[in-house]
Amino acid sequence: MKTEAFDTDVLIIGGGNAALCAALMAREAGSRVLLLESAPRAWRGGNSSHTRNLRCMHDAPQDVLVEAYPEEEYWQDLLKVTGGITNEHLARMVIRASSTCRSWMRKHGVHFQPPLSGALHVARTNAFFMGGGKALVNAYFRSAEKLGVEIRYESPVDRLDIENGQFQAAWSKGQRITAKSCVLAAGGFESNREWLREAWGQNERGEWPADNFIIRGTAFNKGVLLKHMLEEHQADGLGDPTQAHMVAIDARAPLYDGGICTRIDCVSLGVVVNREAQRFYDEGEDFWPKRYAIWGRLVAQQPGQIAYSIIDSKAIGRFMPPVFPGIKADTLPELAEKLGLDGERFMQTLNAYNGSCKVGQFDHTALDDCHTEHLAPAKTHWARPIDTGPFYGYALRPGITFTYLGLKVDDTAAVRFGDQPSPNLFVAGEMMAGNVLGKGYTAGVGMSIGTAFGRIAGRNAARAAAGQPAVRGAVKDEA
């Protein structure tokens, strides 16, 4: 009987955090591993290159993490930002896995550091990567190469051969690559403008909102495999195609790969107005790491998909400064003119806000008692009059990080067809993050999901390659 010759045991499609975690796990289990990264080597790592930290559960102080951040608090934070659109079982599995994975990450060259002073409120909840996401990606690639993982750059995959839910082969640049098992970790569709346009459609003003989106990360996440899986292979999917990790970023940011330095973090310290010089949401709703990712979507819903963050000199030094300086003016009417806003309406909005502020004990590190009264929308915390020149304004655009439409999974990370798990096809990272993130975001949780499910997928892909059944649940590590 002839034995089929496979090109590799485990094929990993993608080159970001989830893909690398899967590749390392599969290689540690003894599998031959081939990783296909669509980007050139210089742009490897996908959106993971732009990350900074990992949200971590812990019941007591742990190295760079202070105090405690127990499972229930983490879950409640996630529940609040998602509005309940999350799979609790999978979410709690990710949360628990986040408490012990750092030792494994360190083994593969990732180092951690305490948060910088500009990273407000996260010393207790988030472990920061020394050197940021680029250093993490480079460490994982070095470790993978050292362990013997074969890596091919500029190798996009455009289709898969699947029979009866079982992976057979992948096609890259006309080459058919066979493997005993496969992990899909090729990202969402955030850099596919056509798909974004299709998802968001045309609004009541006749605008196509997606035309004004800026992509915060990689230009290589086109969603080709995701669309192929959902449409050609009828894999089980979930999620709203308009839901995504979207942040309000500087309108001057580059179309791709601007990263975190283009984010505008002073929203909670002032007011935000649209192009009609009207406020449209509570800028002081909650701490910035929990609410910053709602602002991209809010701006996307405004006329022209643009808004303006307005602060005064009292805010300077209290937020992480972005890469571009704000527009500066000595008076508010001058600032309105420089921003191209109607001066009369702008001053009506600012005067109404300033007059409604009830200033108590201002504390930007707590949900303080500085709020507005008889104003809609209210500002519920950190409300202080904008009255101390010079004044600053930042034009904002929706910055899309990653999309939430994805493939449905269980705790084995298996791709499902007609609610039946594939025996040898698994998924991790952005392609399945919507199981945990139906909407909203909280800082660092994307890396928690990618790390947990990347490791699960890699472990189970190695087991499938060895003819063993998938194991349920997260990878166990020593705390």
UniProtKB/TrEMBL annotation:
<dbReference type="InterPro" id="IPR036188">
    <property type="entry name" value="FAD/NAD-bd_sf"/>
</dbReference>
<dbReference type="InterPro" id="IPR027477">
    <property type="entry name" value="Succ_DH/fumarate_Rdtase_cat_sf"/>
</dbReference>
<dbReference type="InterPro" id="IPR050315">
    <property type="entry name" value="FAD-oxidoreductase_2"/>
</dbReference>
<keyword id="KW-0285">Flavoprotein</keyword>
<dbReference type="Pfam" id="PF00890">
    <property type="entry name" value="FAD_binding_2"/>
</dbReference>
<dbReference type="InterPro" id="IPR012831">
    <property type="entry name" value="CobZ"/>
</dbReference>
<keyword id="KW-0560">Oxidoreductase</keyword>
<keyword id="KW-0274">FAD</keyword>
<feature type="domain" description="FAD-dependent oxidoreductase 2 FAD-binding">
    <location>
        <begin position="9"/>
        <end position="436"/>
    </location>
</feature>
<dbReference type="GO" id="GO:0016491">
    <property type="term" value="F:oxidoreductase activity"/>
</dbReference>
<dbReference type="InterPro" id="IPR003953">
    <property type="entry name" value="FAD-dep_OxRdtase_2_FAD-bd"/>
</dbReference>
<protein>
    <submittedName>
        <fullName>FAD-dependent tricarballylate dehydrogenase TcuA</fullName>
    </submittedName>
</protein>
